[in-house]
Write a structure and sequence with these properties.
Blueprint lengths: L8 E8 L2 E9 L2 E8 L6 E6 L5 E3 L3 E4 L3 E6 L6 E5 L9 E3 L3 E6 L9 E6 L6 E4 L15 E5 L2 E5 L5 E5 L7 E4 L18 E4 L2 E5 L5 E4 L2
Antiparallel strand pairs: 1-2, 2-3, 3-4, 5-6, 6-7, 7-8, 9-10, 10-11, 11-12, 13-14, 14-15, 15-16, 17-18, 18-19
């Protein structure tokens, strides 16, 4: 029977090692970022904030993005700003590679499309590493809908089923691994699904907006 690990409206979950990290809105204007053992136990609050945005976790820090890219030690401590001024676009658009934080963001308020950016985990200059709309995606106006960091690569997908990877340090151009997936409409329409991308057992899995789940050996 399922066990309850946190009450409130949970908007993000990340697994790292033997722990589960999440965001829960227990109050109208405050979100609690918590950690709890996967085997069960009492959740521990890492910090409380108004809007943490998407989260990502490595061995030492939890990264989040309220209105800038920030991180806080898993053991507790003061948050530090990794990069100001660029806010991730969407809920599944913050990921980590070996030594960089990667996210999707518009370069300015006047920009038409968001791009994929990366910045060192310790802070520094943000690099624009991909412009998905130039790779032919078309997700509500072309942009990356989900990100996944693996080693020194960043994988990104679109609602239409395309899949690309790009070096996180900006040393190369995006490489397409899967093209547009043509799906028939059901009864003349569809219910949009939140995009996601995952790596498990040596396979990449990602979904399209119309609900198809695709797989590929990276």
């Amino acid at each position: 029977m399922p066990g309850v690990v946190s009450s409130g409206e949970v908007t993000a979950l990340v697994v790292r090692g033997d722990a589960l990290y999440g965001v829960a809105y227990r109050f109208r204007d405050a979100a609690e970022v918590f950690v709890v053992p996967k085997a069960g136990g009492t959740p521990r609050t890492l910090f409380v904030t108004v809007e943490p945005g998407p989260i990502a976790v490595d061995d030492t820090h939890l990264y989040y993005a309220p209105s800038s890219i920030q991180r806080v030690p898993l053991a507790g401590g003061v948050a530090e700003t990794i990069h100001p001024g660029l806010t991730p676009y969407g809920t599944d658009t913050l990921t980590l590679t070996r030594d960089r934080v990667v996210f999707v963001s518009r370069p300015s308020l006047s920009a038409t499309w968001p791009s994929v950016w990366s910045v060192p985990k310790v802070g520094g200059v943000a690099l624009e590493i991909a412009r998905p709309h130039q790779q032919g995606t078309s997700a509500h106006g072309p942009f990356a809908r989900a990100l996944l960091g693996a080693g020194d690569r960043v994988w990104f997908s679109s609602d239409e089923g395309g899949l690309w990877w790009v070096p996180a340090d900006g040393s190369g151009s995006p490489v397409q691994r899967a093209g547009k997936y043509k799906e028939p409409l059901f009864n003349g329409g569809y219910i949009p699904r939140p995009p996601s991308i995952a790596l498990a057992d040596g396979q990449l899995f990602w979904n399209t907006e119309r609900g198809a789940v695709l797989a590929l050996a990276p």
